[in-house]
Design brief:
The complex is a heterotrimer of chains A (291), B (257) and C (273). Chain A is an alpha+beta fold. Helices cover 34% and strands 21% of the residues of chain A. Chain A is built from 6 helices and 10 strands; from the N terminus they run αββββααββββααββα. In chain A, the strands form 2 sheets. In chain A, strands 8-1-2-9-10 form a 5-stranded antiparallel sheet. Chain A has a 5-stranded antiparallel sheet with strand order 3-4-5-6-7. In chain A, strand 1 and strand 2 form a beta hairpin. Chain A is globular. Chain B has one domain: Aminohydrolase, N-terminal nucleophile (Ntn) domain (Glutamine Phosphoribosylpyrophosphate, subunit 1, domain 1), CATH 3.60.20.10. Chain B is globular, with a radius of gyration of 19 Å. Helices cover 37% and strands 24% of the residues of chain B. In chain B, a hairpin with a 3-residue loop joins strand 1 and strand 2. The C terminus of chain B is likely disordered. Chain B is an alpha+beta fold. Chain C is an alpha+beta fold and 273 residues long. Chain C is 32% helix and 26% strand. In chain C, the strands form 2 sheets. In chain C, strands 1, 4, 5, 6, 7, 8, 9 and 10 form an 8-stranded antiparallel sheet that branches. In chain C, a hairpin with a 4-residue loop joins strand 9 and strand 10. The chains are: A alpha+beta (291), B alpha+beta (257), C alpha+beta (273). Chains in contact: A-B, A-C, B-C. Chain B: Belongs to the peptidase T1A family. Chain B: Its main location: cytoplasm. Chain B: One of its GO terms (biological process) is ubiquitin-dependent protein catabolic process. Chain B: Keywords: Cytoplasm, Nucleus, Proteasome.
């Protein structure tokens, strides 16, 4: 940060002589201190997971949920400044609702990512606002089957209008990550927050790219997500944390196309396996030391 | 003199990603007198220490009832709390009018959280300079929420904010396990004792400077002040005067110590 | 009567002279020369909705017909909309207004699920009850009628209230609310309600009624309505809401019809005897 003190970093929307917007870079710093958040796009759904650092013993356990539902089939997890995250979520909900009222159908994940990307970017343009101090991961499932428009009555024509094509494949699981600059990409596996490096390393080991053959299943994804959060937490071991996980499956899957919390039993089982996996790694390392 | 360039407004990040204006606002909370909140399985309790500007002035209101099922305690700028509490009253009435349903505490807390966040992202606004404890009972049972100037809101089992509140929090952490199954009376005692922990050496809780509010499942939020807290103070601190009947319990204490 | 719909239902120009736009607010007068008008009548309509409260819950039914005037235009229109595990809304009246209200309820449901998107006993307690929903809908209907732009419907809202007791209430296009152990909208208010009241005269009778008897009473009424309501059909939807949730069937057929009574009807057509 050689340019600190040159004055180009004091206001948002100002470029430095070498073409950087420092306020955006500083906002990224706020993200880098937050608990790790990840998203995994699996064959039959999306998992969102969060390492929720517990700052005080007095906090109510399992209460302060941070992964938010934006529309029935969509969730957002974020890392960074908590209130900024809520602002983001609130805007995302408004976008989803306004999309519904215009098109009488749920917003596709890609469109939501696009609109939120534009919204976040707008907060880098003016000196009267500051950028978002969060990176957000949006996960969702776009319906694969043709859905009735909201409020439809009856079954309507069997064919004809509306561009219905027999057997056309559409929808599926989607995952996007939006940064404080407004930049966003689609991901197979996304990670942000303090432990993102470790988490990314783990994500890269997973079979997530459909080009490499069959991707991991949603159930596997849940277990991997728990394990990755535990791995990412290794660096801040002194702090307590809670694991928060949500998932979205297809209509014929466990969540029936909805964004829901991973059931307690399944989450606890995933955590148990995560702990075993971690202990295993420790033993291996110890073994190597002895050699 | 060291000059921090990044702390002039709430739309500037420091190189570390901090927003100093917001952090300074948090300091305003620590200037206010201590307030404590605790929940059990059946009740939510708020207790507060009131300050008066001078001997002859009245005491600052610390607990504001909002709706029949909940209220709040404040530490910091009282006028900011009044703005927020008016907003909460409107929202609570709207919920009752539109849905015939008492507003959920999580919802109303999120709404003021969102309002506070706006003040930290736009030039020309300042963060609220007040911390709140919001306590009461809704369809999901008793709740306690903490609200901070940054817009952070979190649900707590017990919480203390304001001047010297660390001592209250230490007390609360020590008795954390017992709160859930506490009776109404035990919970009140814990809250008053936690407030007492935070008092400076020369101060006592009296009927003048103590505010207490209780709500429970099937028990509407009620604020106790003045004569109504005498009994709670006496049973909590077991200070029935011995023979000295002329003196009111509270006032006697303040003069003595 | 002439061929200009905007003139229908107004004082006749040839007798009273043309409308004097002078009395309109300035914003209107120059543009149209007529007062602003909103919906004057429903277009595609659903007929009666009927419901009965019994000891553990509520039974509600409505047929699957949407009529365009006297034309039986759509025969697979479902007029019972489950809102959540605790509430069902039955719609009579204009079908496009029903679709609007359905979307409104949909967005309300999405909002309700922001905070509790998963199934457990705790969340169930905080679920919006039928009573909450009825209050909300009655505000919507009243607001619209006060804007002189009513939603042309008669609604029955049924299910459970917050304390788990059965709930049944109505609201209509004027925002009028009414609650009783048995309710019926439209033609059903005249035909079904007396029959239902015979089975369930008061709250006490409702508390003694079991589910089977309630369903039987409702089915009997659907049959009677089909006999005598010329805007009805023989396929209908029926829902039972109780503690276990909503049990909705959308393709029920009327059973055990007997048209023997038709022989007795005199006074129509070419009958001479």
């Amino acid at each position: 940060m050689t340019s600190i003190g040159t004055g180009y970093d004091l206001s948002n929307s100002v470029f430095s002589p070498d073409g950087r917007n420092f306020q955006v870079e500083y906002a990224v710093k706020a993200v880098e201190n937050g608990g790790t958040a990840i998203g995994i796009r699996c064959k039959d759904g999306v998992v969102l997971a969060l390492e929720k650092l517990v700052g005080s013993k007095l906090l109510k356990k399992d209460a302060n949920k941070r992964i938010a539902t934006v529309d029935r089939n969509m969730g957002v997890v974020h890392s960074g400044l908590l209130p900024d995250g809520r602002h983001f979520v609130s805007r995302a909900r408004d976008e989803a609702a306004s999309w519904r009222s215009t098109y009488k159908a749920p917003i596709p994940v890609s469109s939501l990512a696009n609109r939120m990307g534009a919204y976040v970017q707008a907060y880098t343009l003016y000196s009267s606002v500051r950028p978002f101090g969060i990176t957000a991961i949006i996960g969702g499932w776009d319906a694969e089957t043709e859905v009735d428009v909201d409020g439809a009555v009856g079954s309507g024509p069997k064919s004809g209008s509306g561009g219905k094509t027999e057997g056309a494949k559409q929808g599926g699981p989607y995952l996007y990550m939006i940064e404080p600059s407004g930049l966003y990409w689609g991901y197979y596996g996304a990670a942000t927050g303090k432990g993102r490096q470790a988490a990314k390393a783990e994500l890269e080991k997973l079979k997530l790219n459909p080009k490499d053959g069959d991707c991991i299943s949603l159930e596997e994804g849940v277990k991997e997500a728990a394990r990755i959060i535990y791995v990412a937490h290794e660096d801040s071991k002194d702090k307590d944390f809670e694991l928060e996980m949500t998932w979205i499956s297809a209509v014929n899957g466990p969540t029936k196309g909805r964004h829901e919390e991973v059931p307690k039993e399944l989450r606890e089982e995933a955590e148990r396996l995560a702990k075993i996996a971690l202990e295993g790694e420790d033993e291996e390392e110890e073994g190597k030391m002895e050699e | 003199m060291f000059r921090n360039n990044y702390d002039n407004d709430s739309v500037t990040f420091s190189p570390q990603g901090r927003i100093f204006q917001v952090e300074y606002a948090q300091e305003a909370v620590k200037q206010g007198s201590v307030v404590v909140g605790i929940v059990s399985k059946t009740h939510a309790v708020l207790a507060a220490l009131k300050r008066n500007a001078e001997e002859l002035s009245s005491y600052q209101q610390k607990i504001i009832p909002i709706d029949a099922h909940y209220g709040l305690a404040l530490a910091g700028l009282a006028s900011d709390a009044r703005v927020l509490s008016n907003f909460m009253k409107q929202q609570s009435l709207a919920s009752r009018l539109t849905y015939d349903r008492p507003i959920a505490l999580a919802d109303i807390t999120a709404r003021i959280g969102d309002r506070a966040q706006t003040n930290t992202q736009q030039y020309g606004k300042r963060p609220y300079g007040v911390g709140l404890l919001i306590a009461g009972v809704d369809a999901r049972g008793p709740h306690l929420f903490e609200f901070q100037p940054s817009g952070v809101t979190q649900e707590m089992v017990a919480c203390g904010i304001g001047a010297r509140s660390q001592m209250a929090r230490t007390y609360l952490e020590r008795h954390l396990e017992s709160f859930e199954s506490s009776s109404r009376d035990e919970l009140i005692k814990h809250a008053l004792r936690a407030v007492k922990e935070s008092l400076s050496q020369d101060k006592e809780l009296t009927l003048d400077n103590t505010s207490l509010a209780v709500s429970g499942v099937d028990e509407p939020f009620k604020l106790y002040e003045g004569e109504e807290v005498v009994n709670f103070l006496e049973t909590t601190f077991e200070r029935r005067e011995e023979g000295d009947e002329g003196q009111a319990a509270g006032e006697g204490m303040e003069v003595d110590s | 009567m002439n061929h200009f719909p905007e003139a229908w239902g107004r004082p006749r120009d040839d007798i009273y002279g043309s409308y004097n736009p002078q009395f309109l607010p300035n914003s209107h007068a120059q543009q149209s020369g007529h007062p602003t008008t909103h919906t004057q009548s429903p277009i595609v309509t659903g007929t009666s909705v009927i419901a009965v409260k019994y000891k553990d819950g509520v039974v509600i039914a409505a047929d699957n017909l949407a009529s365009y005037g006297s034309l039986a235009r759509f025969t697979d229109v479902h007029r019972l909309k489950p809102f959540n595990k605790k509430a069902v809304v039955g719609f009579g009246g204009d079908v496009s207004d029903m679709q609007y209200l359905d979307r409104l309820l949909n967005s309300l449901d999405v909002k309700e699920n922001y905070s509790h998107g998963h199934d457990d006993a705790e969340s169930d307690k905080a679920l919006m009850s039928a009573k909450n929903l009825h209050t909300y809908l009655s505000k919507v209907m009243y607001k619209r009628r006060s804007d002189f732009n009513p939603l042309w419907n008669a609604l029955l809202v049924c299910g459970l209230s917050e304390d788990g007791t059965p709930f049944l209430a109505s609201v209509d296009l004027l925002g009028t609310t009414f609650s009783a152990p048995t309710l019926a909208t439209g033609f059903g208010a005249h035909l079904a309600q007396p029959i239902l009241r015979r089975v369930v005269p008061d709250e006490a009778a409702s508390k003694a009624l079991d589910k089977e008897a309630a369903v039987a009473a409702v089915k009997e009424c659907m049959k009677v309505l089909f006999y005598r309501d010329a805007r009805s059909m023989n396929e209908y939807s029926i829902a039972v809401v109780d503690k276990s949730g909503v049990d909705l069937k959308q393709k029920e057929k009327l059973e055990g019809q007997s048209w023997a009574f038709a022989e007795q009807i005199k006074g129509y057509g070419t009958q001479t005897v």
